[in-house]
Design a protein that fits this description.
Blueprint (H helix, E strand, L loop, with lengths): L12 E5 L5 H8 L7 H17 L1 H12 L10 H6 L6 H20 L5 E6 L2 E9 L2 E5 L8 H14 L3 E5 L10 H10 L3 E3 L3 H10 L9 E3 L4 H10 L13 E6 L5 H12 L6 E7 L1 H15 L5 H11 E6 L2 H11 L3 E5 L3 H4 L8 E4 L5 H6 L25 E9 L1 H17 L3 H11 L2
Helix pairs in contact: 2-3, 2-8, 2-9, 5-6, 5-7, 6-7, 8-9, 10-11, 16-17
Length: about 450
């Protein structure tokens, strides 16, 4: 900014030029790793131990202690789950049904299938996706209850053919999880629902109790205690990618509407005070206009306190000289969400190498992807998009490899196989192979 430019009074931290970031500033921006709180680690470890040893008794005690409800049983009757659909209003039910339909349609199109190849005559190798027997889903129920996250986990699991889908969500004052969560569970075809929250729910699905079945995988978001429980239980049962705060990178040039960019910033920043929102503007003028729009819009947001704190902590407007520079920075950051709001947005997509999901053009609001497009919103955060993918049907199957070798093919493979085995000092392997060469 020059001295002649208007000063923008905003909590959003204007950081200047991307290429002028100091090493400590770049580390602060790109390194989202954090050490777990030792007290949380100890507390979660004790909860897991008790649930593993005491089962339902520990879960019922924790419901009284943490959720302030006295439960007579943990599992909800099917009639209660399905009845929730009638309590949320017909319009919201229609919206949930529409989202579930789109998620089903998208994930069915991307579902894994049997692949078979003949590597040489008479040698056939097949790879078959086999659905997991049981999957556990966690749905938060504290400050926010996310019916959409239930759909994002349960619908792909159902499409993949999982035999039993189990959902745990903390009870509210009436002893039941939120009605929106229950309605989504009914619509998504969840088989069993338990009024269990926090680390205890994760432990129950990881090890099983008298009421809760042991599952083959656990997915779903949660607070720091839930996240830590998933990490500790991952030694016993696979989990989805650990979820951190919501992340958004926006690449915008002069063709983008500053008001549209500001709306996208607000939408992600309102998630959590730890949310990370970075705008990479092509040119100083673009950056200044976007900052002004953000400041103007922040004043009228109902969740302004959360947004202000998020933007003050991890909000940035960075200026790049070119699209290439902006995309390189985004790839290095590896955001959960990337919105490309530029003139030739389609031409930039192939340059993106690391992002959980990419939204092309300013009309492709991240909010649509959070709920309605059918794409999955359970995505890698904390830079894990460089190595991990979003949740999909692939997460709910295991692969079985099947091999078939004819008599003639066995004879042809015998000598080379025996040579390998001899070189590795495995004489029994060599003998097994050579016996077919003598046929």
């Amino acid at each position: 900014m020059t001295a002649s430019e208007p000063q923008v009074r905003t909590s959003f931290r204007f950081r200047g030029r991307l290429d002028a970031l100091q090493p400590d500033e770049r580390r602060e921006l790109f390194d989202r790793s954090s050490s777990p709180d030792p007290e949380i680690i100890i507390a979660v470890s004790e909860i897991i131990r008790r649930v593993r040893e005491e089962g339902d008794d520990a879960l019922l005690e924790y419901a009284t202690r943490f959720d302030c409800v006295n439960l007579s049983r943990l599992e909800l009757p099917r009639s209660v789950i399905d009845a929730a659909r009638g309590t949320i209003g017909s319009q919201l039910e229609a919206s949930i049904l529409r989202a579930a339909h789109n998620i089903d349609r998208v994930h069915r199109a991307f579902a894994p299938c049997i692949t078979q190849i003949e590597s040489e005559p008479g040698v056939t190798v097949m790879r078959r996706p086999d659905p997991l027997d049981a999957v556990g889903i966690y749905a938060p129920g504290g400050k926010a209850a996310y019916a959409s996250s239930v759909l994002m986990a349960a619908v792909p699991a159902r499409v993949a053919g999982v035999r039993e889908i189990v959902l745990c969500s903390p009870p509210q004052s009436d002893g039941l999880p939120s009605r929106e969560v229950l309605a989504a569970a009914s619509i998504a075809g969840v088989d069993r629902v338990f009024a269990i929250g926090g680390a205890g729910a994760i432990a129950a699905m990881a090890f099983g109790t008298g009421s809760v079945p042991r599952t083959n995988k656990i997915v779903g978001p949660g607070n720091a205690f839930v996240a830590e429980a998933k990490l500790q239980c991952s030694r016993e049962v696979p989990i989805d990618c650990p979820a951190g705060p919501s992340e958004l990178v926006i690449i915008a040039d002069s063709s983008a509407s500053p008001d549209v960019i500001a709306r996208e910033v607000m939408a992600q920043a309102e998630h959590d005070v730890r949310a990370i929102v970075i705008v990479i503007a092509i040119g100083d003028d673009v950056a200044l206009k976007i900052e002004c729009a953000i400041e103007s819009r922040t004043r009228s947001e109902p969740r302004r306190e959360v947004i202000d704190e998020a933007l003050a902590n991890r909000g940035r407007v960075l200026v790049a000289d070119s699209i290439d520079e902006a995309v390189r920075a985004s790839n290095a950051f590896a955001p959960e969400h990337l919105l490309i709001a530029t003139r030739n947005a389609e031409s930039i997509v192939d340059m993106v190498r690391s992002a959980g999901t990419v939204f092309v053009g300013e009309t492709s609001s991240v909010a649509f992807g959070d709920y309605m497009t059918g794409a999955n919103h359970v995505l890698p955060t904390g830079g894990m998009a460089q190595s991990y993918s979003g949740l999909s049907t692939l997460d709910f199957v295991r692969w079985t490899t099947i091999q078939r070798i004819t008599v003639d093919a066995a004879a042809r493979l015998a000598l080379d196989t025996a040579r390998f085995a001899d070189a590795e000092g495995l004489s029994a392997h060599a003998s097994a192979a050579r016996s077919w060469g003598a046929q």
